[in-house]
Amino acid sequence: MTAPDTTPGDPGILLVLDGWGHAPPAADNAVDAASTPVLDELTGRYPSTLAYASGEAVGLLPGTVGNSEIGHMVIGAGRPLPYDSLLVQQHIDSGELRENPRLVSLLDALAVRGGALHLVGLCSDGQIHANVGHLSELLAAAAARRVPRVWIHAITDGRDVADGTAETYLTQVTELAAAAGTGAIAGVIGRGYAMDKAGNLDLTDRAVHLVADAEGTEVNTAAEAANASERGDEWVDPSILRDAPGARIADGDGLVWFNFRSDRIQQLADRLLEHLAATARTVDTLSLAQYDTRADIPALVQRADASGGLADELTAAGVRSVRIAEAEKFEHVTYYINGRDSTARSVEEHVRITGPGASDYKARPEMNLDQVTDAVLDAAARPEVDLVIANLANIDVVGHTGDYAATVKACEHTDAAVARIATAAAESGRWLLLVGDHGNAEKMTKQAPDGTSRPYGGHTTHPVPLVVVPANKEATAALPQRATLADVAPTVLHLLGHKTGSAMTGRPLL
Ligand SMILES: O=C(O)[C@H](O)COP(=O)(O)O
Ligand SMILES: [Mn+2]
Ligand SMILES: [Mn+2]
Predict the structure, then answer these.
(1) Do residues 266 and 344 share a domain?
(2) Where do the annotations place substrate binding (predicted)?
(3) Binding-site entries
(4) What domain range is 449 assigned to?
(5) Region label for 248, one of left (φ > 0), alpha (ψ between -120 and 50) or beta (otherwise)
(6) Do 198 and 98 fall within a single domain?
(7) How confident is the model over 240-273, as pLDDT tens digits?
(8) How many CB atoms lie within 10 A of CB 68?
(9) Where would you tag: which of 191, 245, 434, 505 has the fewest CB atoms within 10 A of its CB?
(10) Quick one: 111 and 63 in the same domain?
């Protein structure tokens, strides 16, 4: 770790505008269409640039859309970090995954005792939570080890990919199973139920009972389940295939979770394992990548080391920070930006805004932004606070609804919040760094496999705006033409008067 530098810096505010991407004006660009006079003025008047926030620049496979987890982790780490999806793919390409001792021993045990393998995960190629290609590799491994029965418990997406595509992905899953020579879909359920992360256990339990107990509406085909949904792919009702006898999890079966990202599957994983234990079923369980579950689930692929980032540098330098976000993005400015490290730090305060959630953010594009902004202003007014780090969630969370008009409004609410925060920064002698963590709202349609253009609420590969409003407004140094999210932590440290951390490969932009 780098020793703190003695250059006096200024206190500041790091504001992550979640899902704030940049793309040329177009009919589906909600960021451009929104009236955002303050963001326009700050971007025009002060040093600004575009930062890469997807693909290799942040530790993803080339061409992969950015996401909140890797976005905030790289903002904090000051270097690209090989993300879980990239590590899984490397283990597949090298053949390591198939030979993974934990996997081999589970599959061999199932083959010997005649147990079934249950594979649970999101069936799409959104590459944010999961990738059906990974499922394919697990199916091939099960076939090679002669596991007698393999059941796929399919979660439908419609959020990281265009809505209305669930049937296509379910067909693909069936084809992958046929190609591998094993596996059949047992049940289908939307991610709104199976991947709730807000503690709505009534939703989670619908998934628990489908997967563990084969309880759901009976359907003849997976496509029938997908097409019956009146609320899109995210909300496909729990459905069990009529020709899936014995898909209920039995004592002695095995279970592998194939989402690589933990945040939206961990609630279900814990709940399901507790239900199996309560019903006297011993089931050996693995996850593709490491999960933040209460239960200790052995992972097939370990996480990259993310230490030596901003949090470690701030702690070493005694820099006091306040982290603020509403529930949807709270972990992003605490756990993820700190490198998936939950160590309590005495120099950090966490403010979690808990206003009303919403099942449909179309109707409430303002979310709880006023309270988030109030908290930022309160923290900025405290002289003992060196750094305020906040996430404004609206552009991303409302963007995910795929509703263009609501997303335009979310951008406009965000602009009004930035206006208040920029004024407070000026009044408290703070610099203000604005940056997106990945694109979303600047592209609200996507071409479906059938060639039609559909509303799209998912992320993009576009770069994100990055603006530095200096504490001394006379300073007008230009930023490099292109930056990456890895440059944010070195720039923040520089503005605070500290050197770049020795583990960081990004550079201060000023
Ligand atoms: O989990 C979600 O809401 C989306 O799939 C991804 O969005 P995030 O990366 O912004 O959390
Ligand atoms: Mn995000
Ligand atoms: Mn998002």
Answers:
(1) no
(2) 129, 159-160, 191, 197, 261-264, 329
(3) 18, 68, 129, 159-160, 191, 197, 261-264, 329, 396, 400, 437-438, 459
(4) 12-83+307-496
(5) beta
(6) yes
(7) 999 887 799 999 999 999 999 999 999 999 999 9
(8) 25
(9) 245
(10) no
